[in-house]
Design brief:
Length: 367
């Protein structure tokens, strides 16, 4: 990385460049940075971005990379804000994490605010000895401050690939789990573990006691936050039925953020990495309907040309926030870095970082 006194280049300079120029300039900046930089790419990223990634994967795999690759001073995270925050928490203090577009958020993560979670905890505390009875489990698709809340209250984080192991860990310690912000990942995982329906309640942060009676709260072993992914909630059971009528021998594979009515009709459910691995290792000639983000499915379709890979729905579209990371933003971040300017650095405040790391480390130990 060169050290120069000039100002950072503005993003506007990049928005009129051709795809070829952007590719060549990003690749050149990456070559110039060499071992100084590691580019991480989530499986939902666009092709024009993911082709520059040193490592691609699901949330867990990328978090592990951030924790393990202390040799790279700069991590350019092509994903969404909560993933870059996780990388900042797990990486060393001398590493710098960059998110090429700060507007790349996650609508699910925005469905639980710390004030609402604090209020929920207080409400539960009026009914139960909450610190001994309820263990908070937060999906990594959440702000760092919520991970910190979990760390501080004996809780833990989870991803779509370890939710079951994390919930087993939690129930071995306390009678109840408060699972947030994704109702569906929590419910689908509990369904697979055989938790009876009457033991699960939904906590609506906009209602007193989450919209539950005292009795229901006392009976519950799983308190599910009323939150969801705006992309995965669009898959419907009718999409599965339609596919099965067209391809009776076809296999349906979906992400656990889908509604239980879709998951229960699917053949397989798992994280983005599980979906990719499963379809890749399937025999040629097999037919698949995939219920997750469109960029991933389209890439899988192209890579696995000896199989028929279909998108489960014709109406669901890309994750709009993952889509914010595009070739101009990546090129802008990489060229500035190569010229000595860090743009869009993600820094989790130290007080949040310490407790959030406790919750993430607990998860890493069992993953
Ligand atoms: P994975 O951890 O399965 O990649 O999921 C992340 C995500 O945001 C899914 O919507
Ligand atoms: Fe968030 Fe859903 Fe996008 Fe995943 S697909 S980043 S959960 S909005």
């Amino acid at each position: 990385m060169k050290s120069v006194a000039s100002l950072p280049r503005p993003i506007a300079e990049y928005q009129t460049l051709s795809a070829e120029e952007l590719f060549a300039r990003t690749a050149a900046a990456k070559r110039a940075l060499g071992d100084q930089v590691m580019v991480l790419g989530h499986n939902y990223q666009r092709d024009e971005v993911i082709e520059h990634a040193d490592v691609r994967g699901d949330s867990l795999l990328l978090a592990k990379q951030a924790a393990e690759r202390a040799d790279r001073p700069y991590v350019v995270f092509c994903g969404v804000h909560f993933m870059a925050e996780t990388a900042d928490i797990l990486s060393r203090s001398n590493q710098t994490v960059i998110l090429p577009d700060l507007a790349a958020g996650c609508s699910m993560a925005d469905m639980a605010a710390i004030e609402q979670v604090d209020q929920c905890w207080e409400s539960l505390g009026r009914l139960l000895p909450v610190e001994n009875t309820v263990l908070p489990v937060v999906y990594v698709n959440s702000a760092a401050v919520l991970k910190a809340f979990c760390g501080e209250h004996g809780g833990i984080t989870c991803t779509s690939s370890n939710a079951r192991a994390v919930m087993e860990w939690a129930w071995a310690r306390r009678e109840k789990i408060l699972f947030f912000p994704d109702e569906h990942l929590g419910r689908n995982t509990a369904n697979a573990m055989g938790v009876p329906r009457e033991r699960m309640i939904v906590w609506d942060p906009y209602l007193p006691n989450g919209g539950n009676t005292r009795d229901a709260i006392h009976r519950a072993t799983l308190i599910l936050w009323k939150g969801h992914c705006s992309v995965h909630q669009m898959f419907r059971p009718a999409h599965v039925d339609y596919f099965r009528r067209q391809y009776p021998d076809g296999i349906v594979i979906v992400h656990p953020e889908c509604h239980e009515d879709v998951v229960n009709k699917a053949d397989l459910v798992g994280s983005t990495e599980f979906i990719i691995r499963t379809v890749r290792s399937a025999p040629p000639g097999t037919t698949w309907a995939v219920g997750t983000e469109l960029n991933l499915v389209n890439r899988l379709k192209r890579e696995q040309a000896d199989k028929r890979v279909l998108f489960l729905s014709s109406t669901v579209c890309q994750c709009a926030t993952m889509f914010r990371i595009d070739a101009p933003h990546l090129c802008w971040a990489m060229e500035n870095l190569a010229e000595g300017h860090v743009v869009n650095r993600i820094v989790v405040p130290e007080d949040e970082k310490a407790w959030a790391k406790v919750a993430l480390d607990r998860m890493m130990e069992i993953s």
